[in-house]
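Is adenosine-5'-diphosphate placement plausible here? Inputs below.
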Amino acid sequence: MATAASVTGLVTWARSLVRSPGRLSLAGPRPEAATIPVNRSLRDHGNGLGRGARGGGGSGSLVAGRHGGAAAAAVAVAPAPALSVMRRSSSEESEARWMADAAAETGEQLGVDAGAAGDPELPEPEEQPKAVGGTPTPARRRAPEEGDGRVVRRLPPALPLAPPRPAARALSQLVKSRGWNRGRAYRRNSGSVRPVTVDSSKARTSLDALKISLRQLRWKEFPFGRRLPCDIYWHGVSFHDNDILSGQVNKFPGMTEMVRKITLSKALRIMQSLFPEEYNFYPRSWILPEEFQLFVAQVQTVKDGDPSWRPTFIVKPDSGCQGDGIYLIRDPCDGRLTGTLHNRPAVVQEYIRKPLLIDKLKFDIRLYVLLKSLDPLEIYIAKDGLSRFCTEPYQEPNLQNLHHVFMHLTNYSLNIHSGKFVHSDSASTGSKRTFSSILCRLSSKGVDIKKVWSDIISLVIKTVIALTPELKVFYQSDIPTGRPGPTCFQILGFDILLMKNLKPMLLEVNANPSMRIEHEYELSPGVFENIPSLVDEEVKVAVIRDTLRLMDPLKKKKEIQSQQTEKSFTSKEDLNCELTGGDSEPNPEAHLPSICLKQVFPKYAKQFNYLRLVDRMANLFIRFLGIKGTMKLGPTGFRTFIRNCKLSSSSLSMAAVDILYIDITRRWNSVALDQRDTGMCLQAFVEAFFFLAQRKFKLQPLHEQVASLIDLCEYHLSLLDEKRLLCRGGRPHQRNPPQMNRTAHSAAGSSAPRVIGASKLSHS
Ligand code: ADP
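Reply from A.M.:
I modeled the complex. Tokens:
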């Protein structure tokens, strides 16, 4: 579509409307519109995994039925843009403009640069976009496993590439005269010309959005893979989709496991025990079946203290997605819970009874977060996301409405089957809207949206900090030091609920957020058409495209080169000239909108580094793992850790250390889902570490005890490293012993985690 994505896109879009009021249409009929078979069964919209038709939800499930019969006819569907123009009234125009200003302002407060205001305007179409290689992109036939239905499907349009204005036209002529763009999307790099290559053969449901992004970037796509290595591999599901030995891949090993409901709850619980105030954005949760008794007992205790307390709980199967198998209960002794206990692991969670409502409807926010690098930690957040609405007016849960799925669950994949689902091409109406449109609406009601945004950013950073320790363990296991392997990045989908008091609460994290840019429309009973969803396209294409821009291997190379040349320049002007390419190299991204992903870490590292205690523990853990590829610490490794860190004493004998190891490891392994490896997992190590810290540094808050012990361990290990270095003829550094009596502030204000054993993870 002709709009750029996200907040910046809104500015651009609004401006282009003002500039040429007669041109309200998007790119004309799609050159690549094609009739190809697609699956009639339900597609996933939650995690990117294709799934079959949904059943009735099973026993006690709230999950809605598939069709809704007449309901489908009531669905208000916008005509496919290939056949129509997208119209916006003048009031919508001014709303969009105003909205963009508000969002840009928000960014300012958050430290996000105010690039929105200065975005280059989007070009208008001058020529039909070509696929890399100069020929129009052929419509892709879906792989057989993706569908066998016979329905019409239109692919979404590409963003027009040719610049409209004289300056831009001059630029395009310059590019042509230099032979940059002779049909092929090649880039110049130190004399050699080659495009960035992307293997999209495993992209699955994100393929359409990826194709558009690659076309906009003028990169080279390999839809069927390539014999030679590619720069980037785009996987639809997991790191292991392909065997890759080099380049970059858009998945981290272990991410899918880490964001499962139980693992995420456990990771956040560790952080809650260290920093209860900072991690109160995740509802209190219990893991079933192992914590069922604890759940019953704790609820009873609170009820005894406050008989007027009438809680509601939401039960979510660990392996579920898209609202599958979810149900609400009022009483821990509810019969359905007993069924779940016997069937499958789940998380039971306090239900947030007072969500913020818009148009009397509950909604949640899907935000896209890029984990660009694990070590050093680099996090980006997309400036815009999606808001998914319920389709039945919200009421606080009571026994009568507890099973009303369209009232309580915001999942798109469920509500699309409600007769009241509203498809809209406008970003600010309908059952799926952009998050920026919600912010604007809130702002117009006097809400401090800057505070909302900064609370969300804080939630995202804290959540990623909770996930990274175990991700590092997965990473070193899959890509051990010294062995060839790709570097990783990943787009995560954060599902966030705003409470009535505007506090953001984390619902879940998706490792494979849906990147579909189309939705199903039931033409007649059983006959479906996939039509482009402009709101999805606006947000998702920008996220993919700008992720690729940030990961651009040629840009990285150039940055390194310019850092090297920096030294050989004497004057600042010379340096600037070199970095910008002087007169000779126009910006190859000049035709693109400004990047919609904004760095939040390390940008705000100072405020959050004190939380990274478990990260530092993970570095210690990895150092003592020993065998390459393992994820669990053996008894010898644990003993070596105790010895090297000088933790044994007269009050903690090595025999006691062995008992500690056996005790904790056995308990963790009895509840572990994955029992393939024996030994101590990271979470068990963390528990042992807490125990040791509490023994050694009594009378301090837990996080201070733990921070003190980490300091001590790191100190002894660095001495050991220096000794080893000396033996090899190196020169030691002067080290000061750690301060044992940390104040809360010094513990909190410590610098970035020191990497001792995890330097192998460094890949940025
Ligand atoms: P799934 O992976 O199946 O989508 P979620 O955890 O996202 O599972 O929950 C599905 C929906 O249920 C959410 O989109 C949200 O609307 C609702 N929900 C989940 N947890 C809570 C909660 N603690 N309080 C209120 N609503 C919730």
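Short version: The chain is about 35% helix and 15% strand.
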